[in-house]
């Protein structure tokens, strides 16, 4: 399994946010925020990160990934479908594409996330309806891959989340 992952990764020559983060000594989140002009990153740091990214040949895909469980009743839930439609619409308005992939829940699910990360086809991943202890979130934190969680979880770490205020 690890041979396949490293082979896939080594066959790709695209520069990732992680590569830039290592080059500039910042976190992946800081690099992402700098490249997207967030004002919580100083202008000097933003310009430095952008220059290094250009020099390294960084080219974002402007695509985010969403892995849809194949044996999950949530896929027939109208809220879930509306959420996906909203993500797609807003993403398109911001110039992003959505790559929807499928995976059987359980042990195959982490493999689907690893495959998506290592393929370098997406710049980030959206996780909807997270679990209390969510191995997907733990994996993305470990890999330092950008993601957003829609919902609440007990997983600790630095990541973006959107949750209903009830």
What report would you give on this structure?
The relative contact order is 0.14. This protein is an alpha/beta fold. Residues 1-12 have low confidence and may be disordered. The protein is built from 7 helices and 5 strands; from the N terminus they run H-H-H-H-E-H-E-H-E-H-E-E. The protein has 2 domains: 12-56; 63-162, Response regulator (Rossmann fold). It is 46% helix and 16% strand. Helix 2 packs across helix 3 (28-35) and helix 6 (107-119) runs parallel beside helix 7 (135-143). Strand 3, helix 7 and strand 4 (147-150) form a beta-alpha-beta unit. It has a 5-stranded parallel sheet, with helices on both faces. The N and C termini lie far apart (43 Å).
Summarize this structure briefly.
With 166 residues, the protein is an alpha/beta fold. The chain folds into two domains: 12-56; 63-162, Rossmann fold.
Give the helices and strands, then pairings.
Blueprint: H1 2-10, H2 17-24, H3 28-35, H4 43-56, E1 63-69, H5 78-93, E2 97-103, H6 107-119, E3 124-128, H7 135-143, E4 147-150, E5 160-162
Parallel strand pairs: 1-2, 1-3, 3-4, 4-5
Helix pairs in contact: 1-6, 2-3, 2-4, 3-4, 6-7
Output the CATH class name of the largest domain.
Alpha Beta
Rounded to the nearest angstrom, the distance between the terminal CA atoms is: 43 Å
CATH level 3 topology of the largest domain: Rossmann fold
CATH architecture of the largest domain: 3-Layer(aba) Sandwich
| CATH level-4 homologous superfamily of the largest domain | Response regulator
What's the shape? globular
Main sheet specs: 5 strands, parallel
Overall radius of gyration = 16 Å
Q: Helix fraction? A: 40-55%
Global mean pLDDT = 82
How do the SSEs run, as a string of H and E? HHHHEHEHEHEE
How many strand segments? 5
Identify low-pLDDT runs: 1-12
Binned strand content:
15-25%
Number of helices: 7
Number of domains: 2
The helix-and-strand class reads alpha/beta
Across the major sheet, the strand order is: 2-1-3-4-5
């Amino acid at each position: 399994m690890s041979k396949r992952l490293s082979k896939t990764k080594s066959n790709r020559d695209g520069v990732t946010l992680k590569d830039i983060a290592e080059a500039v000594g910042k976190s992946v989140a800081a690099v992402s925020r700098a490249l997207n002009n967030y004002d919580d990153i100083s202008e000097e740091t933003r310009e430095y990160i952008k220059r290094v990214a250009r020099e390294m040949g960084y080219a974002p895909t402007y695509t985010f990934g969403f892995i849809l469980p194949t044996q999950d009743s949530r896929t027939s839930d109208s809220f879930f479908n509306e959420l996906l439609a909203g993500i797609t619409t807003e993403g398109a308005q911001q110039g992003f594409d959505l790559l929807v992939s499928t995976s059987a829940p359980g042990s195959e699910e982490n493999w689907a996330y690893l495959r998506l990360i290592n393929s370098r086809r997406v710049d980030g991943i959206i996780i909807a309806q997270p679990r209390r202890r969510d191995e997907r979130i733990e994996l993305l934190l470990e890999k330092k891959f950008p993601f957003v969680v829609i919902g609440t979880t007990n997983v600790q770490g630095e990541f973006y989340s959107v949750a209903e205020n009830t």
